What does this fold into?
Amino acid sequence: MPSKFELNILGCGSATASLRHFPSCQVLNIRDNLFMIDCGEGAQLQLRKMSLKYARLGHIFISHLHGDHCFGLPGLVSTMALLGKTGEITIHTFAEGQRIFGEILGFFCRELPFNVRFNIISPTSDQVIYEDDAITVRSFPLFHRVPTVGFMFAEKPKPRHIRGDMAKYYGVPHYMMNELRMGADYTTADGTVIPNDVLTSPADPCVSYAYCSDTVRARRVAEAVKGVDWLYHEATYDASLGEKARARGHSTSADAARTAQEAGAKHLILGHFSKRYNSTRPLVDEARAIFPSTIAAEECLTIDLAAPPRL
It folds into this structure.
């Protein structure tokens, strides 16, 4: 069974409050570890609505310091404290973000039962900002009115699957199983080499996910997410409002589709919708004319990133 790699959309609206959308916030569930990307107002409510466990949340990645992407952070931390979360939570943000939120949390959340750690990221360079046994997370510059970054979450190569019948047939000892999963051949007692592909089947494919929040379209963004499986890209406006989008440091749905196309992405998710739209259908249709494998984000949507999308 493939490893869990799910995207949960908590909010996909833009800066102006509306009754249709919450501000930007999403959570990746990677093998039952939760990674939050941006933290707009209402994040704590949406976590509960989607039955996502506070105790599993260990990292929060802030793309930039506009309120619709980070105003939910103090309330979320306060709620986690009231619920008795323990351990540590890491907030990945710029040096200015550490200064601002360090002061806010120091005033309103003085006695936390868990440790808050800040990981300072650069808004101007492409860098690995987190890594564990399963994934690597990289940040890269976007092009907005204030310093902004996108994030790329990429699974590391996975172990191959043991073919139990063949391992038993050739008498492979139990202590060799991990080596087989890593691709080693097996040599029998009489010196016969049994190729690894006889004893194992291919590993599950690795999944990658890129998050591009507020940004104008730029070839450098497409290069930063080259070959990604799933691309989330802001689509605040439709193409008729392209001039307004560029003036405000945003993209249209057509811009998002062209970025996905240039990047060689497999699938595109549109988000960060202006309150002017009562339906995302025109934005999706516009994007699909350029990049067919496009869907729209919506609150409380969960997407299995290891499976093909339902268009």
Observations:
- DSSP finds eleven helices and 18 strands in the chain.
